[in-house]
Amino acid sequence: MELIVHNIKGKETDKKVKLDKSVFGIEPNDHAIYLDVKQYLANNRKGLHKAKERGEIVGSTRKIKKQKGTGTARAGSIKNPLFRGGGRVFGPRPRSYDQKINKKVKLLARKSALAYKVKNKEILILEDFNLSNPNTSDYLNIIKSFGLEAKKTLVVTSEINNNIYLSSRNLKNSKVVINSELNTYEITDANKILILESAVEGIESTLK
Predict the structure, then answer these.
(1) Pairing outcome for strands 12-18 and 2-6
(2) Residues 45 and 94 sit within 8 Å (Cβ to Cβ)
(3) End-to-end Cα, the chain, rounded Å
């Protein structure tokens, strides 16, 4: 399985990259993708929601009316959940939404997501490049050369490159990650994945 390498102007070069079939050419497993994406989204939830219950409301503990003879229900405190301003019954409390899945399932999910992208021709191999300084317009020109300015793109580098990362940070539809941080959600969420030539080997060694 070979893909042609493109330059930053969107033109094909005479170079090709051979992709490992055990990573990019497997039979995709939809359930593994579902489990990994669900875990990623769940682990990103903060779980900080909180409502005050009866014991946490600031208010008088005086009995607000006599026990009998009023013709209405008994009431012992203004903090009663039945009254406006009272506590909430079984209100939400801070909690963790974190989920766990096996490492092998995560690996299978990432390989399955990449296999789908290769099958749908949504992966481009890009010649290694660098920007002399952080510049959003220069980065956007590279994305425009492939006609992807209106689509979600994911650029995968082999190592941390601050100039490329800072140049992409202002763009809502584009994200830059290093090969070791590639995850299933970002792969499936992107319309097109631009993988730098030097990052391919790192992806294969991580997912093998």
Answers:
(1) antiparallel
(2) no
(3) 16
Question: How would you classify the pairing of strands 123-126 and 2-6?
Answer: parallel
Query: Residue 118: which of 201, 31, 22, 183 has the closest Cα?
Result: 22
Rounded Cα–Cα distance for residues 178 and 164 (Å): 11
Fold of 2-45+99-207: Ribosomal Protein L4; Chain: A; (3.40.1370)
For residue range 166-201, what is the model confidence (pLDDT) as tens digits?
A: 999 999 999 999 999 999 999 999 999 999 999 999
**CA dist 79 → 50, 59, 84, 89 (Å):** 17, 7, 9, 11
Domain residue ranges in the chain: 2-45+99-207, 47-96
The CA distance from 45 to 29, in Å, is 25
Handedness of CA 154, 172, 185, 131 (dihedral sign): positive
Contact 152, 173 (CB under 8 A): yes
Q: Which residues of 77-88 are buried (b: 16+ CB within 10 A; e: fewer)?
A: bbbbeeeeebbe
118 contacts 24 by C-beta, under 8 angstroms? yes
Structure tokens, 204: 């294969």
Q: Would the pTM of this model clear 0.70, i.e. be above it?
A: yes
Mean pLDDT of 133-143: 93
Structure tokens at 59: 């208010």
